[in-house]
Amino acid sequence: MSTAAAGHGSKTGKVKITREDLLGTERRWRRFGEPTAAGESLNEDGTPDYGIFGPGSVVWEVLLHPATVAFLNAAQGAVQTKGYNPIEAGLRDRDPISRKAREGTLNMLDVFDRLSRNSGMHAPMWLGDSKTAKLMYKHLHNIHKKVAGDVTDTARPELGGYAASEPRDAMWAALTEMHPMLRVYEAFAFRDGKFPHRLSPEQRDQFVAETGAYLRLVGAAEEDIPANMAELGALYEKYADLFEPTTTVNNLPDTGEDWTKLSKEAVKKNFHISQVRALVPYLLQTTLIELPVMGTLPARMRRSMGLSPRKDKAAVRAAKLFLPIAWLMQQGPYERYILRRMWGPDSIRLLQSARRLHEQTLARRAMDQLVAGEKSAGAPASA
C-alpha cells in the first residue's frame, strides 16, 4: 500500500504519492461493473442499443473530438463553480473536498482525484448502451440525494436552497456540461481541414434537441427541456437569478469562511514534492487554460462568472490567441495523456468504440447521399 493510500482520511494530509496512485485503476471511475459500449448490446427488437445519443448524432460529433477531450473539464468546471450558484453551494456544503478542507487534511491528490472523476464518470452515460447509462445515472442520483441544503448564498436568502437530485439542479448540472462542451468544440476544434468554426444554426439546434435525451435521463422537468438554441437562451433567462455573479456563495453558512480559501491553505500545508505528479495535470485542466476557455463561453455566462469588462475582453482575446496551443493540445500525445488521467481506462475504450461507430455511420450516410444523388441525376426528365 502506498503512503497516499494509507494517508487518506488521517489527520495529516501530507502524503507521498506515486505514479500508480496518480493513474489509479478502473475502480476510480467504474460503478456496477464494466460498462457496455453503445452498440455492443441489443434492444428488445434486436436492433443495436446505441444509448441516449448514438452514432451520427451531433452530440457525438462534438463529444468525440480531441478538442472536447482536452477542454471539457476546464469549461465545465468554470461554469459550474463560477456560474451556476446552486452547484457551487453543493460543493461548499456537501463535497468531500470541502469537508477535508475544513479538517485541514486536503491534499493535491484529493483535488486531482475529484476532478478526474468528472468526465470519466459521465462518459458511460454519454457513450454506453441504455443499461449502462441508466446504472451510472442511478449511482450519481443516489450520491446527489445527499447534496441538498437550505441556503444557496448567505447574502441572498431569497434564492432559497438547492437539491442536486431534484429536477431543476439536475437539469442545470447536465446543461452546464453540454453547453460548454459545444462552445469549446466550436472555438478550438480544428476539423474538416479548417480552423475552428461554429456549427450551422441547424446543427446547433439539433445538438440542443439531442441533449434532451440526457436531460430526461437525469430527471429534468419536461416543460423546461429546450428543443433548440432559442429555447436554451430563454431557459437561461428564466433562471437568471441563479446565475447572478456573487462574491459570497463560497462562504460557509455556519462560519462565514470561504471554503475555496480553506482548500488552498490545506493543500499548501499538506504539499509534498511528489504531489507535483497530481498538480501538473490539474493545472493543465484548470488554471493554465481557464482564461481562454472562459473566452469561448457566451457573454451571458462570462457576466455570471463576475468578469469585469476588462477581463471579459481579455478572455475573448485570449481564446483567439490560444489557438496554436489549442491545436497542440488536441494532438494524439496530449490527448492520450489527458484521457488516461482524467477519463480512465473504461472511458478510453468507450470513446474508441464510439469513434469507430460514428465514422462508419457518417461514411454510410455519405454513401447513401451519393447514391441518391446519382439516381436523381440519372432519372429521365418528366414530360
TrEMBL record:
<dbReference type="Pfam" id="PF09995">
    <property type="entry name" value="MPAB_Lcp_cat"/>
</dbReference>
<dbReference type="InterPro" id="IPR018713">
    <property type="entry name" value="MPAB/Lcp_cat_dom"/>
</dbReference>
<protein>
    <submittedName>
        <fullName>Oxygenase MpaB family protein</fullName>
    </submittedName>
</protein>
<feature type="domain" description="ER-bound oxygenase mpaB/mpaB'/Rubber oxygenase catalytic">
    <location>
        <begin position="104"/>
        <end position="318"/>
    </location>
</feature>
